[in-house]
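User: Hello! I'm new to structural biology and keep hearing that structure can be predicted from sequence alone. Could you demonstrate with Glutamate decarboxylase? Please show me the input and the output so I can see what each looks like.

Assistant: Of course. The first part below is the input, the amino acid sequence of Glutamate decarboxylase. The second part is the output, the predicted structure written as tokens.
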Amino acid sequence: MWTVIYIAPSLRLAEKICEQLAAQGFLVKYRQSDASKQQYEILVPESELEDVRESWNVILHSSLSN
């Protein structure tokens, strides 16, 4: 089962976050949010959730600061 870990405010940011997670070896995908066509959900398999959380803060801060 896939779990939403973040809702990105733009397609560009969603793609950037997914690239960074994938580069670390995580399975990741994004999809357009049902709530807003301008938001994108970042999803990871539930089985990888704990591992992703360990790297998440570093990835999120570097993505938002660029």
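User: So the tokens describe the shape?

Assistant: Right, they're a compact way of writing down the 3D structure. Reading them back into a model, for example: The first helix runs from residue 11 to 23.
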